[in-house]
Amino acid sequence: MKVGLYIIILISVLVSSCGEYEKLLKSSDYDLKKAKAREYYDAKQYTRASELFAQVIPRFRATEEAEELNWLNAQSFYGMKQYDMAGSYFKSLVEQYPFGKYAEEATFLGAKCDYYISYRAELDQQNSRNAIEGFNVFMNRFPNSSKVEEAKSYIKILQDKLVEKSYLSAKLYYNMKAYKAAVIALSNSLKEYSESKYREEMMYLKLNSLFIYAEKSYADKQKERYQATLDEYFSFMEEYPESKYSKEVKKIYEDTAKYLKIGNTANLVKTQ
What we know:
Layout: H1 2-26, H2 30-42, H3 46-56, H4 66-79, H5 83-96, H6 103-116, H7 126-141, H8 148-175, H9 179-192, H10 199-215, H11 219-239, H12 246-260
Helix pairs in contact: 2-3, 3-4, 4-5, 5-6, 6-7, 7-8, 8-9, 9-10, 10-11, 11-12
């Protein structure tokens, strides 16, 4: 009986609270709405707070409170983990008040929101690029901020994701056996991310793509393409003389040398 009574009382309180809130939304007392929005924010009831801030902010746009109200509104969406909306509001706040008291933290959080909505490496990375740009803007504007090192750590994570995306996209052409496209994509990735942790594998894939492309070409194109394979072989050898792809690379060289009718005396990689 006591449990049932407690549930009834709880439901009554909730219904009453919802009814009061609905009346507040319809009220024309914007000072009351502003005060209640702050209360809801402090109580971490961010959904209600944001709904009230949406009504209040236009009314107080030209007042001294406007900056803070916009800040609390952005923070409400951040508290709800609606990072796309929060990021938009943080960036808008910085645009409106570039030298305001919240400019530093809003700039940082705007970039952090893009970081949170950045997709995994296989998918589109525009949000990652936006976040990197945002963190760089933050560090340039606030080089003495206590959050600079944190911004750098996020940039490193995001850059690693871009490297992985580039690698996966290039490798996809190879897996599809689109070897001409693979050579172009691998070359671009190696140029853009010269320190990539996938560099050895991508250089091997590029070499093998050139070889297979030459092998499958019309006779009048083969000599030129086998020569490109040979050039790439020497580039690979220069960087990775002890490569884990030793056997495969040696076989590519031998077949290429045989076609070009050159002595098989080049500095071959050591077989494992």
